Structures are given as structure tokens and as C-alpha cells.
Amino acid sequence: xxxxxxxxxxxxxxxxxxxxxxxxxxxxxxxxxxxxxxxxxxxxxxxxxxxxxxxxxxxxxxxxxxxxxxxxxxxxxxxxxxxxxxxxxxxxxxxxxxxxxxxxxxxxxxxxxxxxxxxxxxxxxxxxxxxxxxxxxxxxxxxxxxxxxxxxxxxxxxxxxxxxxxx
Amino acid sequence: xxxxxxxxxxxxxxxxxxxxxxxxxxxxxxxxxxxxxxxxxxxxxxxxxxxxxxxxxxxxxxxxxxxxxxxxxxxxxxxxxxxxxxxxxxxxxxxxxxxxxxxxxxxxxxxxxxxxxxxxxxxxxxxxxxxxxxxxxxxxxxxxxxxxxxxxxxxxxxxxxxxxxxxxxxxxxxxxxxxxxxxxxxxxxxxxxxxxxxxxxxxxxxxxxxxxxxxxxxxxxxxxxxxxxxxxxxxxxxxxxxxxxxxxxxxxxxxxxxxxxxxxxxxxxxxxxxxxxxxxxxxxxxxxxxxxxxxxxxxxxxxxxxxxxxxxxxxxxxxxxxxxxxxxxxxxxxxxxxxxxxxxxxxxxxxxxxxxxxxxxxxxxxxxxxxxxxxxxxxxxxxxxxxxxxxxxxxxxxxxxxxxxxxxxxxxxxxxxxxxxxxxxxxxxxxxxxxxxxxxxxxxxxxxxxxxxxxxxxxxxxxxxxxxxxxxxxxxxxxxxxxxxxxxxxxxxxxxxxxxxxxxxxxxxxxxxxxxxxxxxxxxxxxxxxxxxxxxxxxxxxxxxxxxxxxxxxxxxxxxxxxxxxxxxxxxxxxxxxxxxxx
Lengths: 167, 583
Prior knowledge:
heterodimer, A: about 170 residues, alpha+beta, Alpha-Beta Plaits, 2 domains, 5-stranded antiparallel beta sheet, 4-stranded antiparallel beta sheet, 9 strands, elongated, B: about 575 residues, alpha/beta, Rossmann fold, 3 domains, 6-stranded parallel beta sheet, 23 helices, about 35% helix, globular
């Protein structure tokens, strides 16, 4: 079956070891994790994890069912791309000469990204957007020589009023 | 020698004691633990002390109500708790110290987890201030057991203990049951807190489905009315849900043949004419061919394990699959399932029983009956050699199928499944999923602790018997009257069988030469030992063993070359069966 990317939003108790439980489940059952982000959610005491995985409908259904078996998992939602806003942030450091700075500013502007640090021979760019946009930004900066790169992984939230109800 | 049992369990919890225990006193974490366990109705805890649980054992010392059985190995303790839980349906409890004590429980936890056995496993840990420092006897047991527990807790404060224990019992014993671990650092067991149990347990992320979706059950009922060749595949879940009577009614009403998996054995009476025996790798001809030819396969509390399905691609090729299970993750995990019914099996079947009618199965039932008659289980008996299958049949005949039988893992386990006629749920206790050698004997101790008057027989091979033999000591001290059977063929029989059939008789490391004299071993522990090497001796010593009011070990020296048949080898479908040596 065709392997596709899926984004899964998991609301969990903010307990020690929860990340280990979720990540361990993926590892043990052979599910892939492309990226994972964890942070606080709209409710105190609960965290939201966003996991991007690859698989097919059957695998994603199993992932969801297995996640629900974890006591600390409150809610699992598979986020389809058209009803969801998903973003990641990347910090990209390029090694450049002073005369190349304007070129970087030009690229940054068209991407509505920003320059967050300028050194004598480096610049650091921050870009926020969907995975495709971040990928494209990296491609464009590659010719300058990327000396450092850090991506957050995708975080996501469903659009409109139908936001994940928390039981 | 045969002193009165000091630790005989009995339900000590009455209203007066309950009220006394519920007092909101300021007590140590250890006392909170003991009170909480008593309030849960725990009759007997199996355990082994050590540094990190010294406060807990100190609290036990002058607690008149708390019953603890000191095993000789932590593994013995957890398998005993498991046997107790499987034979009663109650939560089994065991306790061990930190580090090696805790890691010695790992096999037992995995065993219980695979077979959905409700356990609460208590481990000590080092002081909270020492956690993470590689302190003496420190092990990250919650981390180690993460993938093999239903849930686990590392308790950081004494005031959290009582609610954690309540939650642990709730989680262990509801939904799909399983082991829950509670790790208690030494200071938590020493510190004081007000005892404040919750009036009720409510865990936000935990709501097992009990009542089924009626539309799905109605679809199942409809499918049954339309089916011509339906089969029920009943598993462990039937027994865990106490749904045996509901299953009996379901099968009787619909007139559908029933096959029971290894762990489902006893969930349906084996003397019933609709029973087909066990399916799968060592299943009966009737069960395997019924599955392969059926048009509707109704899995009930069975997870379509690989030893049942063998090659899944060719499993039940003509069937619509219906699946009743309390765990939604089991539905569709292995097989494409057309009719999923998630819920407590007893509730699902009781609802279905109001709707179902007799199905149009007369011709089909007649067909499977023919298979049963034409291809019964058989072995080549001998007057010269004692055959293991004969020994199991003899034990069956002399106990009318009424005993609790625990087994270890291997050939003898399959022969028990094949030749002992179980008619009651919770009477076969065996490690099905994990296949744990060393499980059977301590599990029998646990089952016997739950009911001193029940005949409990532990059937072992000579390999597995040596994996937990040390518990003979507690049988002797407490006069725990388990009949310990050792089917001794001098080799690791199941491995030998595979090496013979699949590895061209290249017998690699299966010879158990150097095993102890089992009779002397038993007697060294103060347990009676008996031995038989032929049919006459077997009958004689077995009769003697049954008459002994106390533990006894009976060694049956059997022929070495017996294989378990039928057999389906890897990659084959379950109707491609090797029926015996000749073929």
C-alpha cells in the first residue's frame, strides 16, 4: 500500500515518562516517526504532541488504537492537511562574506522569513511555515554554505470551531 | 514436618476491619500500602524482601491481617501471583526489592502482559534523592518494564500512594486486563501521610468499552442467520470476562461449532459435541479444517495469534471475519475484519443471545463431526515404553477433568492441551503468549494458595522444572499440596522435535544429561518423591500421589522420541498438517 505522511495530534497528561511511553510505542511496534513536537496545550496539566509519521490508513488506525491504550493518552486526532494549520520553525546559519548579505536579505524577504543574527562571517535566518516552505528555504540557502541547521518539527492545530474537544 | 499452613489465605476483610482500616490516620507509606492492599481484598501477597522494601516488610511484621508468602526467587513470586490471578480472576499481587529483585520480575511481568493477567506488581526503589545516581541496587524498573506493563507508577510522595494503588487495581482488573507496576522509593515507604483513599477511581484517559455497539452486534446476528458454515474461535478473553456460560448459550442456540485456543481451553466444555478442540500449529484436524472451510469465523476474545493462524494469508480463506474483543486495537490487527464488536465479551454475548436463532448449520455440524470422528488425536501407545501422552490421559482419567492443571512450556504443554479434557474455565493455567519456561510450577503454588481444597496438578518437562524448582521449599514448609508432575524425557523435547523435523535431525544442545535425580531433589526439600517408568508403575505411583495429603513430586520417565502431532510447520496454512510420524 502507498506510504503517505500523516500528522497525528495526541493530547497527553503532562506526566514524567509520557514522551517515553509514546515514543517507545512507536519504536516497539515499528511505526516511523518523522518528527515529534511536544508542548503545553490549551489546558493546564495536558500537553499536546504532534507526530508526523508515514504509513497507510491501516497503520495509522493501529497507531491511534495503540495510543489510546496508554493510560496517559487523553485524545488522539489524525489531522488531515486541508482542515489543519501546520507549521514548523527552522533556524538556518549560513557562512557568508559581507558583500553577500544583501542576497540573503532578498531571499529572506520573499519568504517572509527574518534574519535573527548577523556575525562578521555568518547570518542566521529564521523561517516559519509548512514543511515545504522550510525545505525550499533551505534549498535556496544551500549554495551559500549552511553551517548550522535546527528544525523544530511540525506543530499543528485544526482550523475553525471544531478544535479538538478534550473529553 | 507437615505443619499447619501459617499463610493460608482467607478473606479477612469484614465491615469492622474495613472501618478500622479506613481511618484517616497519619501513617507511613508502608502502612498505607498494606492498608490499601487489604482494602482491595488482597488475600495473599507473594514476595521477597530486600533493602529498599525493608520499611514495608517491617510494617508486615506486626500486621495481624496481612498475609505474605516468602518464595525462594522473585520469579517464583510473580508466577505464583499470576497463577493465583488466573485461577481466581482476582488481581494477583507480588512484591520485590529494587534492582535485581525488580529485574527478576521482568519475565513474569511480560508473561502476564502477553496473557492479559491482572497483576499489581510492587517494587521498592532507592531513596528519591538517590534515583538517577546509579545507587546500590538501583534499576529504572518503570523504564525497563514500560513495554510490558499495562501501566506503571513511580510514586514520589507518600500522600500519593493510596490513590495510586486504587488506580493500579482498577486498571489491572478492567478492560483488557494486565499487569500494573508500582515502584516505591524507600523514603516514600518510610514517610508519613494521612491515609485518604478516594471514594471512587476516575481516570480521565481510561474508559474501556463495556457495552458494544448494538448495530455491530445486529450485523453479527444477521451474518449468523445467513451463514452456512460458521465457526466460533474462542480465546482467553472468554475466560477473563467470565463469559463461558454466555458462550455456551450462544453456541447452543446458534448450533455453531466451537474451537478454543490454548488459552481459551476450559472456556467451552470439551465434552460438548460442538467442541472441535484446539486450532493452529498443534491443533486438531477438525478445528483446522473447520476454520479453513468456514464461511463465517467468529473470533471471541481471541487475538488471531500466529500459532493459531500460522500463514495468515491462507488463514480462513473463505470466511467473513467477525471479531468480538474488549480491546479495539486487536480488531483488524492481524486479519481484515468485516464485523467488529468491541465490548466486554459477556455483555456482547448476552446481548447477542437475546437476538440469535438457530442457524442453518445441520449439514455443516454433521461434516465437522465426521472430521472429529475420522481424525481424532492419536499416538502410538506402547507396552514397553511409557508414552507422555499416555501419562496425560491417565491423569485425565483419574481426575475426571476436574483438576486445575498448570503447565510449563513445550511438548508436555501441547499434550495437556490435547489430552486433558477441560470442562471448566480457569482450570488450565499456562503461559500461552510469552511461552515462559519455569512458569508452571510456581503458578500452581499460587493457584493452590487461592484454594487449598482444589486438586492442583503442575505438569512440567524436565527442562522447565529446573527453572523454578526452588519453590519446592515453600510447598514443604507450608504443606501446599500441589502434585508436581515431571514428564522426563531427558531432552528439551519441543526443540528436539523441531531439530528432528526441520533441521535434519541435527540435535544441537538439547540433551539435559546431568539433571538431578528429581525424586531425591524433592526429598532434599522435604517433599515426597515418586517415580514411574512403565504403565504399571505409573498407575501405582499416581494413585499413591493422589492419596498423599501434601505436596508430592512424581517423575514419569517417558520415551524420548515422541513428537507432538498434528503439526503445522512455519509458513504453511493450518490445513497443511503433518498428522504423525508415518507421513
